[in-house]
């Protein structure tokens, strides 16, 4: 306990905790939409395509986060537009952009004069290096995401669960598709510093899947995702500190452990319900006899 209290005296750890909370909020909301809409594969494509923006920004001497944000949003809009306006299959478009973004990023990084940067920090992240600018960007993303889902929750639900029904209700389906896919891209890019390109998709899916085990209500799923995200992030940070391991990997590992525990709890709950249902049926049968 004393070691834990001492950790909060360091600015880097406070920044890491703040980033974990903000990442859990943004990913909890946006990830719930991703899971409900079943577009995890699209999110994976945007994640890896954004690496091209990191490499290009590095080559031009710009902030890698800015480059990844622009490239990620353009890739997301490109996937949405090409899959709707052409006869090219969506999974093919995703696969092409996925490979193109990774290849482009690697080429630009190694074309940059001087020493090549450490790719591990981009691929697997390091939440302990999060600075004030990263926190402000994450906070801005959280506030904007909350505003979008607060004012547009009903049409978002229509689009997430039944796009054709949303069109019959005259919901702005095309606008929402572009807006939400852009939010997905921004959430991915701004959380790269937290868990990295390889692992960020887990931040957007595992806590949401855990929450979805216990509720089908979209609002409850969002709050559950945020709670599991914060819990898993904090456990991962502590494990990272104790064993001196990369924080991104330990956070995702914590999510997987929570998923396994939640699945076991769900199975126990189902078993108990079945037994109760069997007892009720047995009592009804005895009563009829």
Rounded mean pLDDT is 86
**Class by alpha and beta content:** mainly alpha
Rg, nearest Å: 21 Å
Question: Ranges with pLDDT <50 over ≥5 residues?
Answer: none
Gross geometry: globular
Succession of helices and strands: HHHHHHHHHHHHH
Helical fraction:
over 70%
The number of E-state strands comes to 0
SS strand fraction: under 5%
Sheet of most strands: none
First CA to last CA: what distance? 61 Å
- Put simply, the count of helices is 13
Provide key terms for this protein.
single chain, 289 residues, mainly alpha, 13 helices
Spell out the blueprint of helices and strands.
Blueprint (H helix, E strand, L loop, with lengths): L1 H6 L3 H27 L2 H21 L3 H22 L4 H22 L8 H5 L7 H30 L1 H6 L4 H18 L1 H12 L2 H9 L3 H26 L3 H42 L1
Helix pairs in contact: 2-7, 2-9, 2-12, 3-4, 3-5, 3-9, 3-10, 4-5, 4-9, 7-9, 10-13, 11-12, 11-13, 12-13
Can you offer a commentary on this structure?
By secondary structure, this protein is mainly alpha-helical. It is 85% helix and 0% strand. It contains 13 helices and no strands. It has helices at residues 2-7, 11-37, 40-60, 64-85, 90-111, 120-124, 132-161, 163-168, 173-190, 192-203, 206-214, 218-243, 247-288. It is globular. The termini are far apart.
């Amino acid at each position: 306990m004393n070691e834990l209290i001492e950790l909060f005296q360091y600015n880097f750890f406070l920044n890491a905790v703040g980033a974990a909370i903000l990442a859990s909020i943004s990913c909890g909301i946006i990830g719930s939409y991703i899971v409900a809409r079943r577009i995890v594969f699209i999110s994976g494509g945007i994640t890896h395509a954004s690496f091209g923006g990191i490499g290009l920004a590095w080559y031009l001497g710009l902030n890698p986060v800015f480059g990844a944000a622009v490239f990620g949003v353009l890739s997301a809009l490109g996937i949405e537009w090409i899959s709707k306006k052409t006869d090219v299959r969506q999974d093919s478009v995703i696969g092409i952009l996925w490979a193109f973004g990774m290849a482009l990023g690697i080429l630009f990084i190694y074309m940059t004069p001087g020493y090549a940067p450490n790719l591990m920090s981009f691929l697997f992240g390091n939440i302990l290096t999060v600075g004030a600018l990263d926190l402000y960007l994450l906070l801005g993303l959280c506030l904007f995401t909350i505003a979008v889902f607060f004012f547009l929750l009903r049409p978002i639900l229509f689009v997430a669960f039944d796009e054709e029904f949303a069109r019959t209700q005259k919901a702005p389906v095309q606008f929402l598709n572009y807006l939400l896919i852009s939010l997905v891209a921004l959430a991915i890019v701004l959380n790269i510093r937290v868990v990295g390109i390889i692992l960020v998709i887990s931040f957007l899916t595992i806590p949401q899947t855990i929450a979805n085990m216990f509720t089908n209500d979209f609002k409850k799923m969002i709050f559950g995702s945020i709670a599991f995200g914060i819990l898993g992030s904090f456990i991962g940070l502590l494990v990272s500190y104790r064993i001196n391991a990369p924080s991104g990997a330990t956070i995702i590992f914590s999510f997987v452990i929570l998923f396994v525990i939640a699945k076991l709890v769900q199975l126990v709950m189902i078993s108990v319900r079945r037994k109760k249902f069997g007892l009720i049926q047995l009592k009804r049968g005895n009563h009829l006899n």
